[in-house]
Structure formats: C-alpha cells, structure tokens
Design a protein that fits this description.
- There is one protein chain.
- This protein has 114 residues and is an all-alpha fold.
- It has one domain.
- 62% of the residues lie in helices and 0% in strands.
- The protein has four helices and no strands.
- Helix 2 crosses helix 3.
- The longest helix has 25 residues.
C-alpha cells in the first residue's frame, strides 16, 4: 500500500510538476465510491481488485462523459451520487442474504430417538 501510494505521488508530480500536501483533497470519497460500485463490501471481507478497477473505470467514464453531453455540474453530481447509493443498496442487500446462521433449528421431531 505504501509503495503504491509513493508511486502515485511520483506520477502526480511527474504530470503536474507540483506537490502540495492537500492537492488531492476530496479524492478519498471518489476512491471509496469506486470501490463500493465495484462490489467491495463496506463492512469488509468481500470484494476483489478487479471489481475496484471496474468501479473506478465506471466512475471515470461517467465523470468524463457527462460534460461532453452538456449535463450541468449539479446533475453530474446527482447522477454520480445516485450510482453510489444504488451500489450501496445492492451491496447491503447481498450482504444480508448471506448472513451467518448462529443457531440451527433441530430437525429431529420431539420424542424421536437420537
């Protein structure tokens, strides 16, 4: 993780020729959104790197395509936010269906010999 962060910082400076402490402020939410859209569980333990990459590609396409078709910045944020909310809803529903069974019901009828 640290090596990837260092590589990202190097690539940022190589491209923009500037390095401030708070230059990428606000990207944290986009990273979390890309992960959630890619199918990674917020609670942890479920997901893949490929899913995170696909989520990032999806958000990138949405963020770059909407200005091309002259969508206002307000609606761009609304569309991105609704995509995130839909992904979180599907994620929550999928996690609830697979829940752990804590107590199993006894399938033998009462009074039957075991």
């Amino acid at each position: 993780s640290g090596a990837l962060a260092g590589l990202t910082g190097y690539l940022w400076v190589a491209r923009y020729a500037v390095a401030y402490v708070d230059i990428a402020g606000g990207f944290e939410l986009e990273v979390v959104a890309a992960c959630v859209i890619g199918g990674i569980s917020i609670a942890g333990g479920i997901g893949s790197v490929g899913g995170a990459v696909l989520g990032a590609i999806f958000l990138g396409v949405v963020k770059n395509a909407l200005p091309v078709v002259n969508i206002s910045p307000f609606w761009q944020l609304a569309i991105s936010g609704s995509a995130i909310l839909i992904a979180v809803a599907f994620n929550a529903r999928a996690g609830r269906a697979k829940g752990r069974i804590i107590l199993k019901s006894d399938e033998t009828p009462m009074g039957a010999a075991q």
